[in-house]
Amino acid sequence: MHQLTSATGIIAITAAAIAVAALLLSAALAFRLRRVRMEQRVVLGGQSRDLVGQAAELQSQFETLHKYVEDIASALENRVAGVEDRLDGTLSYRALVRYDALGEMSGRQSASLALLDGTASGLVFSSIHHRDQARMYIQAIQDGRPEHRLSPEESAAIDLALGQATQQSQLA
How far is CA 84 from the centre of its chain? Predict the structure, then answer.
């Protein structure tokens, strides 16, 4: 017992206690490392690389996916631009104005029909009806401007088609 109470004995006991604590700590860390590696295998899918390699591969895959999405978005933008250009050339605005062209009480049998695209270009058809005859006139409209002078009814049909007038104002 005398040897345990001496300075060398106390140092030996302290060293043994530190060694046991270090052994317990290393066992706990080894157990914890084993759990981390098992969880890492679940995340990595059983592959034999570390998290840094996995992160690098994921980054590469994200960059590839990002480029693919950008290419698709660019293609869609081009298609939408093409569709918008085509839509501008389709019949977008139309209006019909009926009237009594010759001042006879014929029941407003004459009519002007405006058919315009998105750039306000198109045609105005006018049909003038009389008791013994009917006449058809067609005027080309380019960017909202006629090739020849328009009648008030033809102008009214264009204004109505483009939303610059109401049907009620055309009936007056």
Answer: 14
* pLDDT tens, position by position, 83-134: 888 887 788 899 999 998 877 666 788 999 999 988 889 999 999 887 778 8
Q: What are the boundaries of each domain within the chain?
A: 1-46, 49-88, 93-171
What DSSP element (H or E) covers 165? none
Taking 80 as the threshold, does the pLDDT of residue 60 lie above it?
Answer: yes
R_g (Cα) of the chain, nearest Å = 44
pTM over 0.85: no
* One-letter identity of residue 68: Y
Buried b (16+ CB within 10 A) or exposed e, 51-85: eeeeeeeeeeeeeeeeeeeeeeeeeeeeeeeeeee
Q: Cα dist. 123→9, 34, 115 in Å?
A: 114, 81, 5
75-84 LR contacts (CB < 8 Å, sep 24+): none
| Angle between the N-to-C axes of helices 51-88 and 7-44, in degrees from 0 to 180, rounded to the nearest 10 | 30
| CA distance readout (Å), 48 to 35, 37, 38, 144 | 16, 11, 12, 71
Q: How far is the first Cα of the chain from the last one, in angstroms, to the nearest whole number?
A: 127
More confidently predicted of 103 and 67: 67
